[in-house]
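Subject: for your reference before the review

Hello V.,

The reviewers asked for a structural picture of the protein, and I figured it would be easier to keep everything in one thread rather than splitting it across files. Below is the amino acid sequence we used in the manuscript, unchanged from the supplementary table.
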Amino acid sequence: MDSKTLNVLEYPKILERLAGFCDFSASMELARSLEPTSSFELAAARIAETTEARRLLSIQSAGVGAAHDIRPQADLAARGGVLDTHALLDVKSTLISCRDLKKTFEKKTEEYPKLSQITFGLPETHGLVDAITRILSDRGEVLDSASPKLAEIRRSLRVAQDRLMTRLQKYVTDAKTVSMLQEPIVTQRDGRYVIPLRSEFKGKIKSIIHDQSSSGATLFVEPLPVVEANNEIRELQLAERDEERRILAEVSAQVGEHATELKYGVENLAALDLAFAKAKYAEGLRASEPIINELKVTGLKVAGSKPSSLQPSTLNLIDARHPLLDPNNVVPIDVDPAPGTRAVVITGPNTGGKTVSLKTVGLLALMAQSGLHIPAQSGSELPCFHSVWADIGDEQSIEQSLSTFSGHITNIIRILKKIDSRSLVIFDELGSGTDPQEGAAIARAILSHLLESGAMTLVATHYPELKTFAHSTEGVVNASLEFDIKTLRPTYKLTLGLPGRSNALLIAQKLGLAQSIIDAAKAEINPLDLRADKLLDDIRKERNRTSREREKLEKARDKLEAQNRELEKRLEKIEDERRETLAKARAEGELEVAVLKKNIDSLKSQLKKASQPLQAIKAIEEKMEEMEEKTTQPVERKPDPSLLSNNQSLKLGERVTVGTLKADGVVTALGESDAEVQIGTIRVRARLSDLVRRASEQSSVNSKQQEVVSRPSPSTSDARKSPGMEVDLRGLMAEDALDKMEKYLEQAFLSGLPFVRIIHGKGTGRLRQAVREALRGHEYVKSFEEGGDKEGGEGVTVAKLKSG
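And here is what came back from the structure prediction:
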């Protein structure tokens, strides 16, 4: 791409903002050097990387951690240099980051193929992390355990220092010498331990002077009796230094052995961090993934020849925003010319936003071909241009004695020599800076040449001749930036299909120019031009009215969609409550079965004691088994409220039927929630809700109908019974899963469910693909989509069902 064009469109500012999202110097350097590519395949791959990174960061936090650019350290180690402790810690933290990232993407190759491909180039640790951890602490200190020799040296050093300090403490604490000292302390000078002697006592203590204070009042002396001890300490310190250097050199050599792989790994780590930075930048910019299309031509147009074919336009930017302006204040524009359009001529008032509109299109094209998401609505499309050229701003040069016009023409000549049918050309104020008649003629000729070349062209101008040219020439469309006459301010809204108006007379009238002068000016203007302006004004008003109506309809549609979402949430809540109720019912059933088992065991024991045959409770056991089976069925319990009122006034001695046992008995004891019933020679305890009074024939009928678990009736209502809001296909083979899903969908459709969730899991993606292939065109399915983040993401497909 042309460097001058990149600067004119302020592309380096985009890269500087992108670099601000990088986590270490290597990726920052990569971000600042990022250039748009003319390769469609590379541009598409870059965009896919950004999309994957953005999707990953929306689910979990990811990054390069505490990585560093360790390429200089690797080079030094490869040349036999010794790395200091901090350099080795940088190597360690970088390798740990690489190891963690490789683990993150190890099982996500299919989900994030582009990012996973980058992680394949990250280096292995080769034992370097363990080697560095073995010799260095987190603060960068060489550990005693780094080698047996170092441990021995440091042990001897501590003993020697203790001996020396004991001897020096005598000078500090002895009454004869303490008065000679400036302070009763032991300090160091040039690596040797000394005491601060007052200068007036010089010579009183036999010693070697190592230093004195700035005032000369204090001498730092080493008493002669401790010279040998100090020498021993110094020798041990030098031995410690040499051993530490040997240890560091040994580990540095290991780093040097893998220098090439480490440098290559840092480059891949920088590429991965750049992908994360692009994702973060896109989030901050509220950007969307662009659709980029390949420009295919059968022949290229070079200056002096005719193009073999013209490529239809694929430029379609919706709600596009300038990426360097505040997204909360900038007015978005739509640039969506009809297919076959090769040039857009933008007219409008000064400071109305023409230049910003041109730069917006140019910058978004460069961003897309750099792999960045663009600040525009999802679904926006851009061609992959072979080159982008721009002439914007004042090209006047005092040094080269060029006027504004000469500067523009010089740059335009350079551009026209290099364009072809795959180029994007942007000209601001084409033909300005000279005589208006000649400037307009030159502008028309240049625009005609650009059309012949087949290049996509955007031009901003004030010349009315270019408006006429655009209106009468195939492949060229007018566009304008609106101006609010009431406020005398531009609206910055771009309208395709209509040329701009100067509004000079209206503005002058609004500002108070005498009406007589306004009328005289109108008399000088061609009446056809005035009628054309009036017609344009009427067209613009009608378009604005239509636009307002469309906005109202869109708001109404958004409101309906919000209501639908609310209803779906309510349905989900109802389904959750239903499941909770069923779970509670199952738990109650299991409890009842446990109580019955206990009662039956008690009955058996009593029958044995009474020498009665056990056949008497065989029927009860069979009923209990049926009941146990029913507790496993997902059926709601619906207790008959009439039973509760029927049992509120039970009295001792009354005859009742125990519903769960289907046996008659007499009430012998009453509690708050249960009662004791005598059945033959056996006494059992039962809940009041299980007891039915035998007072009338109707009570008998009611007792026959009462059951703890409602028995499903074999009617057509079974077909309309809800199968639940989701079906789980995980663990099934594809064929079995599809059969299960087919039966489930049929029952869900008949029961009138609006949507269902199909759980197929992530895995290899084969089951997901089979499920979605089966849903596509299914007779009961209206549409389907991937589940949301809280619904299971790619492991779930939400299918909306047709209404019955």
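For the response letter, the relevant points are probably these. The first strand starts at residue 187 and ends at 189. The CA atoms of residues 180 and 331 lie 82 Å apart.

Happy to draft the paragraph if you're swamped.

O.
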